[in-house]
Amino acid sequence: MQSLFNVPLEELQQRRSAKWTSYPEDVLPLPVAEMDVHLAAPIARELHRAIAESDTGYAGDIGRLTEAFGGFARERWGWETSGAAFKACADVATGGTELMRLLAHGQQVVVTPPVYPPFYKWIAAAGAECVDVPLAQDRGAYRLDIDGIGHAFEAGAKVLLLCHPHNPTGHVAPHADLLRIADLAAEHGALVISDEIHAPLTARGTEFTPYLSVSENAAATGLALHSPSKAWNLAGLKCSLIVAADPAVIPSGLPHELPWGVGHLGLRAAEAAYREGAPWLDDLLDAVEANARLLEGLSSDLLPGLRFRRPDAGYVAWLDLRKWELPAPPAAFFLQAARVAVSDGADFGPGGAGHVRLNFACSSEVLTEAVTRMAAALGGGGATQPALKPA
């Protein structure tokens, strides 16, 4: 079966999204978490239907969306959401920022770096103080430092901003770790805001457990952020959900404008994704797995000494380049010397320096070309001539 990532480069270069307009045409853009795919057919049909109906007004009632999400969560994760409360927002960043403003102002907020860089901006926007509890490592694998989180709660932190699955490492916290976090949060009167945007992208063989489903303590201490934007490539359509297993946990005072920021086309697309998008998602997971294996092979052949562990979820690779003494931060180096754009690890907080995050949700040809160029640059030969010609 043909990979979902086999979209011609010349077609991609006609797109006007941030990924394809932020760099010159000779740069392979692999930093932002946007996939090189065509829309899933059920989503495309729903969007075409909306246009044919001239249904382009404000987003309305979210009941059909939450019903579809509930069915997906039940089927995919065994999570029953029938008693949950939902609030719609434009995207996870908007929802997270508004929750932080209400729940964390003047408080200490725990994050687990290296972690998604905007978390730091959410905390700053909320007038809160960031407490870094870096991930622990065990034989090259990342895991949450549960004892460190507990110590931070003991010291007064009142919110844990949990990246689950973790970005950029791809770590999926096991049920036992989430259970301990929930117990610690309940013991210390803390709240857990779980960003679960990458959850549908959990690899086969790995079990994702929604935080709110773990226990009564989790339900009483948690809020979750969900969106189809990463798994179905819908970021530009603007539709996400704030979820509370216990409706009482949703804070009062969320801005009146919050649901009005939701895109109506995004609302319809999100419902289609959760209701009808599972077969396409399964094909996507196959494509992600194939590219992860390809990246492992390319790294082994062309970049011996590079440390890379296949993610448990998602399509971003966290690459450890500390073996090489580069003359500039890694992302700047590769942009200049290899014409490959990646995200610089230093932006992800403590533990990130010397790393890059690379989005491998692209064709095998683009991925091979990118790693080949990076290897040539590290070997001192500068960038190779592009085998993939820009349009």
Automatic annotation (TrEMBL):
- Which cofactors? pyridoxal 5'-phosphate
Q: What class of enzyme is it?
A: lyase
Could you tell me one molecular function GO term of this UniProt entry?
cysteine-S-conjugate beta-lyase activity
Question: Aminotransferase class I/classII large domain spans which residues?
Answer: 99-373
Keywords noted in UniProt: Aminotransferase, Lyase, Pyridoxal phosphate, Transferase
Keyword flag Transport: no
Q: What is its EC number?
A: 4.4.1.13
Gene3D superfamilies, sorted: Aspartate Aminotransferase, domain 1 (3.90.1150.10), Type I PLP-dependent aspartate aminotransferase-like (Major domain) (3.40.640.10)
Give the signal peptide, or none: none
Q: Family, per the entry?
A: Belongs to the class-II pyridoxal-phosphate-dependent aminotransferase family. MalY/PatB cystathionine beta-lyase subfamily.
Q: What is this protein called?
A: cysteine-S-conjugate beta-lyase
Source organism of the structure:
Nocardioides antri
